[in-house]
Amino acid sequence: xxxxxxxxxxxxxxxxxxxxxxxxxxxxxxxxxxxxxxxxxxxxxxxxxxxxxxxxxxxxxxxxxxxxxxxxxxxxxxxxxxxxxxxxxxxxxxxxxxxxxxxxxxxxxxxxxxxxxxxxxxxxxxxxxxxxxxxxxxxxxxxxxxxxxxxxxxxxxxxxxxxxxxxxxxxxxxxxxxxxxxxxxxxxxxxxxxxxxxxxxxxxxxxxxxxxxxxxxxxxxxxxxxxxxxxxxxxxxxxxxxxxxxxxxxxxxxxxxxxxxxxxxxxxxxxxxxxxxxxxxxxxxxxxxxxxxxxxxxxxxxxxxxxxxxxxxxxxxxxxxxxxxxxxxxxxxxxxxxxxxxxxxxxxxxxxxxxxxxxxxxxxxxxxxxxxxxxxxxxxxxxxxxxxxxxxxxxxxxxxxxx
Length: 403
Fold this sequence. Notes:
The chain folds into 3 domains: 10-46 and 331-402, no CATH class; 53-87 and 217-300, no CATH class; 98-202, no CATH class. The chain is 21% helix and 30% strand. The chain has 9 helices and 26 strands. The strands form 8 sheets. It has a 7-stranded mixed sheet. A 4-stranded antiparallel sheet has the order 7-10-11-12, with no helix packed on it. A 3-stranded antiparallel sheet has the order 22-3-26. The radius of gyration is 27 Å and the shape is globular. The protein starts with 9 loop residues before the first strand and ends with a strand.
């Protein structure tokens, strides 16, 4: 990535005397040294990694009358429209036990994934929950149980006893998954008791569902549902494309994508709204493709006015004129970090004195995002990346300057 170069600017005075102003790096250093021993005050831009689409930028562009297709072309230049409709497997990280437990409901059935046979589960006023759990002594065999007032009881699958492999619950509508905390979360599609590897006795809960149904539980958790439809639709296409890219990369694994910010946030039925659902259905199946394959459509909350380089032809750093609008409170931000906190994070430096920025990416105010910096103290110094420094101290981005 390009590095920041100090610029020396000369001002022509009436007496024809040229006076050189201090370099931006020299000003940086003086501010850093004067700020530092007790508390570091930082001024920054943007929220997130800044690669690809700015979500605030999408809203800003929508306010200016841009369509979702125009927004996507701006943030992912060189990509084209394509389609993706296949099912996706989502790891439900909140359900960390060995069993998959659901509340009883009309039309509930269980599928044996070993041979794809489906069995309807009986209904009774006494039955309130069902679960799939590993059979005792068998690593790849599952049993089905029901719960009533007297506890858990085994339900024998007709003409076979236990399931021959992993099982999954299915229903004509959303199911209530019972989490280890005792709370419930509702999901569409199937809830599978998957085992991470062949012969494993562990189980993980995986939600298997169509791509559009998955997107219903993503959009309003990634972007405010009150925003313009053009912004929501650009988010729907970006999220569907990202999921398709990850699905292709992980197609041989027991799950394709997780439900946290490590992938993209997914909370099932509880996340759905009428506005975000409309954005999903109005863009049904649409993705962005590059070279005939799903593009890696990364996105973050705010670019701060410049997107960052993502290392792909359609993820290049560029000026973002849409990110700065009245509702974007993270386009510019301020943070304070105590010297003691910095010393605790880097104990080898002793008492914290200052930081010195070594490299920036060269895009935007102050020379752009910090790539490398030196943290200096009474006993020594350490070099860290701007990204590591950001995450260590919970900064909104690595585009910042000491003030």
